[in-house]
């Protein structure tokens, strides 16, 4: 789930899977945060009890 240790070939593989429809990335996004709220929200994203799988920061 994490991209921290992913290599370019890992990303290439995942992108191919998404393009083929083998993976639906939206199913992994559990939280969306507006950028203006990130400073206050970020600590809770690190708490395993919040159930975060993937968080997306929206720059609106």
Automatic annotation (TrEMBL):
Protein name (database record): Zinc-binding dehydrogenase
> From which organism does this entry originate?
Sphingobacterium allocomposti
Q: What is the lineage of its organism?
A: Bacteria, Pseudomonadati, Bacteroidota, Sphingobacteriia, Sphingobacteriales
């Amino acid at each position: 789930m994490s991209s921290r240790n992913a290599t370019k070939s890992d990303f290439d593989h995942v992108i191919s899977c998404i393009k083929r429809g083998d993976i639906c990335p939206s199913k992994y996004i559990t939280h969306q945060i507006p950028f203006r709220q990130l400073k206050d929200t970020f600590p809770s994203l690190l708490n395993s009890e919040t159930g975060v799988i993937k968080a997306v920061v929206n720059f609106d």
